Amino acid sequence: MVEMKSFCEAGVSMQQVWVEGGLTLCFYFTLVPSVLLTLLFLFGTLLCIWYSRYGTDMEPKFVPRSGLYRLQVGLSVLLILQALGWMVFRLSWSAELPGYVVLYGCLSMLGWIWAVVLLRLERRKVLVRDRTRGHSTVLLLYWAVAFAADNLAFVSWMSPQWWWSLETSEQQMEFAFWLVRYFCSGLLFLLGLKAPGLPRRPYMLLVNEDERDVEHGAPLLGNSDEDQSTWKDFGKKVRLLVPYMWPKGSVLLQLLVLMCLGMLGIERAINVFVPIYYKNIVNQLTDGSSWKTLAMTVCVYCLLKFLQGGGAGASGFVSNLRSFLWIRVQQYTNRVVQVRLFAHLHALSLRWHLGRRTGDVLRSIDRGTSSINSLLSYIVFSIFPTIADIVIAIVYFISNFNAWFGLIVFVCMALYLTLTIFITEWRTKYRRDMNTQDNNAKSKAVDSLLNFETVKYYNAESYEVGRFEDAILKYQVSEWKTNASLALLNQTQNLIIGLGLLTGSLLCAYFVTEGKFQVGDYVLFGTYIIQLYTPLNWFGTYYRMIQNSFIDMESMFKLFTEEEEVKDEVNAGNLYFRQGKVEFENVFFSYTQGKEILKDVSFTVLPGQTVALVGQSGSGKSTIIRLLFRFYDVQGGCIKIDGQDISKVKQSSLRAHIGVVPQDTVLFNDNIRDNIRYGRVTATDQEVEEAAIAADIHDKIIGFPDGYETQVGERGLKLSGGEKQRVAIARTILKAPQIILLDEATSALDTQTERNIQASLAKVCANRTTVVVAHRLSTIIGADVILVLRDGQIVERGRHEELLAKGGLYSDMWQKQQQAQDSDSASDSETKDRKSEKLQPQTSTTAHRGH
């Protein structure tokens, strides 16, 4: 029969808190559930009242379905069963059942049941004015205190009353129950920080966005990504980083990586032995050891210190050698990232490039590339070694000093890392906003400089400078918030480190005065703890820099995740060009959903023919050119060249046979020779000059002071419009394509220049399949077929004379252009007559005076 004779075991009193090097089990198992239940019952009841009065039911569509939430409930239930199981175990194991066991079991079960109730309540209800996300402070505090209480058991590491020795079956079972509590409470605390069963964003924000006006809808509380953790998709980001760290295909670089990792292990061992040898020197000086022994110890210590450097591997021989060997690996990473991203950007569709902001893209590439290098360096050579040093220190202090010192290091580390993570996550939004404002300022500067002509046309220099200054001021506001929150983080870290050093030093000094430790042990503790806190002090910086790197990489990762709109099929072959027959068969296309640009367009361009596309603006002429060059894929029908669907062949092989002369030619900021050579980069100087002769621009180039070495300036602005067009024609001639696309190539030029360039184009297009988009109908009179488009459909087709005879849309367009041309000619004649009238009297008077 089980009896409960007293509250504690025989010979133990509640007044006895510390017995045989540890807390009494009676005191521990009375204090923990009492504090936990009081905390939860008091504040949890207030929270329930608050929810009942001011809360509202959460709409099910906003509540995420999460397996981690079910895990939270499951862990709480497991803790309830653990408390019950511990009572049953103590009941079956001993005939005497202490009162504290019953108290602990009942209070613990009640507490965890109450925690499950609050967990479910927070999932069903929400406070109307609550604009935060995550669990309530009550639940988070309860889980944190429960986990801290299980860590409190480490204080009694040396006590024979506790289960740490695992000598008896009873101690082994007690240890198993503690493991369940420790694992469940720790996991609940970590899951509570994530709050998987609650909306990831403030609930009221979700409701407001759901009900906002669609037409004028913008999020009421700003960008939804502001509160998003930078650790989101961490695994995906790491998988993207790993290939850049391990150099594939280079045995030498792979060997360098392994050597650097090996040196990390050497540094960890050195960090342990440096304070140990320092301790030995102090003890040998105080106990009168021989000079030979002392000198040997000093020499070994100095060698280790030389290898270690200024503490924690900073600027030591091993660290410097590792940094030197890592240079090549870092250069490989830098090169591969930039090249892959550059290739990816060039593979993106025309739609993306038309909408991009060049300044944003360049800043994202610049910051993202540098952040990858720093990220790999911080993770591999700072975070992992620091964690290893901390774990080694805890084990060393527990095994060679006592559990108190290990506990001091552990508590300081836990507080330090927890507060560092909390504060750093909180200040993430400031860093992200600072990047946004930085991008905005740089984009304004780039856009303004690229469009400097427009700025000067409208005398808007002061306006642009003012806009740039406003952007800088907004950036500086975000920068101040970032730096101010950084100062708060640093002060918090220094406070924790200082308190930990003070506590450990006082305890160690006490043991020295009691004769339990030697003076060298105090020196060892001070040296080791300062050496340990050096990387720990930098740990916050490492974490912050890693997070900043993730933030800086976000824009770059977004560039990597941009989908290619036009992709080659997996087994796509090369275009086999035979004659150059182009066929459009029932082609449908739209840039945006619901607005079709081309509707059932069908036509054929026979080999060597010239087909002209005419029509009003927006009728789909230039779209046909872009589809044929496969800047976009059709949404219906198909386009064929020599019977081959161009969507089934490789883009590179298709574009190798097509030459384009656009309306607005943009040249690289290089010399004329290299701009022409861009048509075929392997061409010789002689071939470049022959292409220039064919384009009727060779004599003009020779007339320049620098000839073919003349720099054309940004976008070719140092050349006139006609000169740029002739360079584009020469470039196309050099490419020697079988199909020519002319997209209003002369519409922006004057009449005389247009006629000269038309002659050059005629040479290019001779015996080649040609598609011409024309605005001036006089330039396509000789076309084999003219297609007239209206609202994305072909409404007329035929030769020039045939279309005029029909008297349809083409005839109307022709008459209007002729009338406009006659009007311009009459205007020019009147101007000349007026000038003649003004000059005539002046001439007569002069003659009379001369007479």
From TrEMBL:
<dbReference type="GO" id="GO:0016887">
    <property type="term" value="F:ATP hydrolysis activity"/>
</dbReference>
<feature type="transmembrane region" description="Helical">
    <location>
        <begin position="27"/>
        <end position="51"/>
    </location>
</feature>
<keyword id="KW-0256">Endoplasmic reticulum</keyword>
<dbReference type="GO" id="GO:0032585">
    <property type="term" value="C:multivesicular body membrane"/>
</dbReference>
<keyword id="KW-1278">Translocase</keyword>
<dbReference type="Pfam" id="PF00005">
    <property type="entry name" value="ABC_tran"/>
</dbReference>
<keyword id="KW-0813">Transport</keyword>
<dbReference type="InterPro" id="IPR036640">
    <property type="entry name" value="ABC1_TM_sf"/>
</dbReference>
<dbReference type="GO" id="GO:0015439">
    <property type="term" value="F:ABC-type heme transporter activity"/>
</dbReference>
<feature type="transmembrane region" description="Helical">
    <location>
        <begin position="294"/>
        <end position="318"/>
    </location>
</feature>
<feature type="transmembrane region" description="Helical">
    <location>
        <begin position="495"/>
        <end position="513"/>
    </location>
</feature>
<feature type="domain" description="ABC transmembrane type-1">
    <location>
        <begin position="258"/>
        <end position="548"/>
    </location>
</feature>
<dbReference type="InterPro" id="IPR003439">
    <property type="entry name" value="ABC_transporter-like_ATP-bd"/>
</dbReference>
<dbReference type="Pfam" id="PF16185">
    <property type="entry name" value="MTABC_N"/>
</dbReference>
<dbReference type="GO" id="GO:0005789">
    <property type="term" value="C:endoplasmic reticulum membrane"/>
</dbReference>
<dbReference type="InterPro" id="IPR027417">
    <property type="entry name" value="P-loop_NTPase"/>
</dbReference>
<comment type="subunit">
    <text>Homodimer.</text>
</comment>
<keyword id="KW-0812">Transmembrane</keyword>
<dbReference type="GO" id="GO:0097325">
    <property type="term" value="P:melanocyte proliferation"/>
</dbReference>
<dbReference type="GO" id="GO:0035675">
    <property type="term" value="P:neuromast hair cell development"/>
</dbReference>
<keyword id="KW-0067">ATP-binding</keyword>
<dbReference type="InterPro" id="IPR017871">
    <property type="entry name" value="ABC_transporter-like_CS"/>
</dbReference>
<dbReference type="GO" id="GO:0055085">
    <property type="term" value="P:transmembrane transport"/>
</dbReference>
<feature type="transmembrane region" description="Helical">
    <location>
        <begin position="140"/>
        <end position="163"/>
    </location>
</feature>
<dbReference type="GO" id="GO:0061072">
    <property type="term" value="P:iris morphogenesis"/>
</dbReference>
<feature type="transmembrane region" description="Helical">
    <location>
        <begin position="404"/>
        <end position="424"/>
    </location>
</feature>
<dbReference type="GO" id="GO:0005765">
    <property type="term" value="C:lysosomal membrane"/>
</dbReference>
<keyword id="KW-0967">Endosome</keyword>
<dbReference type="GO" id="GO:0005886">
    <property type="term" value="C:plasma membrane"/>
</dbReference>
<dbReference type="InterPro" id="IPR011527">
    <property type="entry name" value="ABC1_TM_dom"/>
</dbReference>
<keyword id="KW-0472">Membrane</keyword>
<comment type="similarity">
    <text>Belongs to the ABC transporter superfamily. ABCB family. Heavy Metal importer (TC 3.A.1.210) subfamily.</text>
</comment>
<feature type="transmembrane region" description="Helical">
    <location>
        <begin position="71"/>
        <end position="89"/>
    </location>
</feature>
<feature type="compositionally biased region" description="Basic and acidic residues">
    <location>
        <begin position="829"/>
        <end position="838"/>
    </location>
</feature>
<dbReference type="GO" id="GO:0020037">
    <property type="term" value="F:heme binding"/>
</dbReference>
<feature type="transmembrane region" description="Helical">
    <location>
        <begin position="375"/>
        <end position="398"/>
    </location>
</feature>
<feature type="compositionally biased region" description="Polar residues">
    <location>
        <begin position="839"/>
        <end position="851"/>
    </location>
</feature>
<keyword id="KW-0333">Golgi apparatus</keyword>
<protein>
    <recommendedName>
        <fullName>ATP-binding cassette sub-family B member 6</fullName>
        <ecNumber>7.6.2.5</ecNumber>
    </recommendedName>
</protein>
<keyword id="KW-0458">Lysosome</keyword>
<feature type="compositionally biased region" description="Low complexity">
    <location>
        <begin position="817"/>
        <end position="828"/>
    </location>
</feature>
<feature type="transmembrane region" description="Helical">
    <location>
        <begin position="101"/>
        <end position="119"/>
    </location>
</feature>
